[in-house]
TrEMBL record:
The gene is aroK. PANTHER family: SHIKIMATE KINASE, SHIKIMATE KINASE 1, CHLOROPLASTIC. Its EC number is 2.7.1.71. It comes from Imperialibacter roseus. This is Shikimate kinase. GO terms for molecular function: shikimate kinase activity. It catalyses: shikimate + ATP = 3-phosphoshikimate + ADP + H(+). Pathway: Metabolic intermediate biosynthesis; chorismate biosynthesis; chorismate from D-erythrose 4-phosphate and phosphoenolpyruvate: step 5/7.
């Protein structure tokens, strides 16, 4: 198995299903699930939105990289849902590819827009916008990230698939 004893890192845009698929996969494999965003919240003792607001993105990215590095150092098998931006800063992606198995959950702009639906209070950026506006916002903000995601060792399209099907497909490719 490709992932024998190594951490499995799920990467992709917000709404691509990293948390949902990650939890399912960890149950199927019988190994722990860790959400990198939760580790950051624990370490900082405050919400990510507060870290962004009070300290700015540069600070957040440094904390994110440090939390990722300590997860990698522990060298045990686990499924890690990374943050949407994690592979796109510093050498985070190289580290994940070197010491773990990376999987990009590829999802179209249209599908992402439908998932991060307007009105969801946890995504203030998209609140009150129509579906097509959400799609444009996503593209404008995040197109630059795609070349990073595409360097993952495994790429799985999530299009028209249930999260459970995505987890099963990933399991078969590990
Ligand atoms: N394959 C799928 N098909 C349809 N809906 C999905 C699929 N995977 C996830 N979802 C739904 O999309 C939403 C976002 O999923 P999830 O929170 O797992 O994404 P994420 O990549 O962890 O996002 P974030 O980066 O914001 O943490 C959830 O409502 C989830 O139920
Ligand atoms: O896409 C991003 O840049 C982010 C996604 C979230 O998972 C968090 O890591 C944070 O809100 C930043
Ligand atoms: Mg998530």
């Amino acid at each position: 198995m490709l992932a024998d004893g190594k951490p499995i890192f799920l990467i992709g845009l917000p709404g691509s299903g990293k948390t949902t698929v990650g939890k399912l996969l960890s149950t199927q494999l019988g190994i722990p699930f860790i959400d990198l965003d939760d580790i950051i919240v624990q370490r900082e003792g405050r919400a990510i939105s507060e870290v962004f607001e009070k300290e700015g993105e540069d600070y957040f990215r440094k904390v994110e990289a440090a939390c990722l590095a300590s997860l990698i150092e522990s060298k045990d098998s686990k499924v890690v849902a990374t943050g949407g931006g994690t592979p796109c800063f510093f050498d985070n992606l190289e580290k994940m590819n070197r010491d773990g198995v990376t999987c990009y959950l590829e999802t179209s702009w249209k599908e992402l827009a439908a998932r991060v639906a307007p009105g969801e209070s946890i995504r203030p950026l998209f609140k009150g916008l129509a579906g097509s506006e959400v799609m444009t916002q996503l593209q404008e903000r995040f197109s630059w990230r795609l070349p990073f995601y595409q360097k993952a060792q495994i790429i799985i399209s999530t299009e028209n698939k249930l999260a459970s099907d995505v987890a099963t497909e990933l399991l078969a490719r590990l």
